[in-house]
Specification:
Elements lengths: L1 H21 L6 H30 L3 H12 L6 H14 L1
Helix pairs in contact: 1-2, 3-4
């Protein structure tokens, strides 16, 4: 989060000075707003895109989830508690 804020501040300052240079003044508020908002939109858009890509990878059909649940528990019809316990054991082995 700190890096995100630092990048937004830097983009705002650069946009302000670049806009000021174009309009022959020292600092442009319009350039600062465009720089900050544009950078925020791009970074948040990329974050949403990559999050959506990760969620697509993790979506399993119920049939496949059942196969994996049977694999990690070793039982034909595991209960939710048995599945969670098996997942916890696997995580603790890492």
């Amino acid at each position: 989060m700190k890096l995100f804020i630092a990048i937004l501040i830097a983009a705002t300052l650069i946009g302000g000075f670049a806009g000021g240079e174009i309009m022959d003044i020292n600092f442009s508020i319009l350039g600062a707003v465009i720089g900050g908002v544009g950078t925020a939109a791009v970074l948040l858009g990329l974050g949403a895109y990559f999050t959506a890509q990760e969620e697509k990878k993790s979506d399993l059909t119920p049939e496949m989830r059942g196969v994996f649940d049977r694999m990690i528990t070793g039982k034909e019809n595991p209960t939710a508690k048995e599945i969670e316990d098996a997942k916890a054991r696997l995580r603790s082995k890492r």
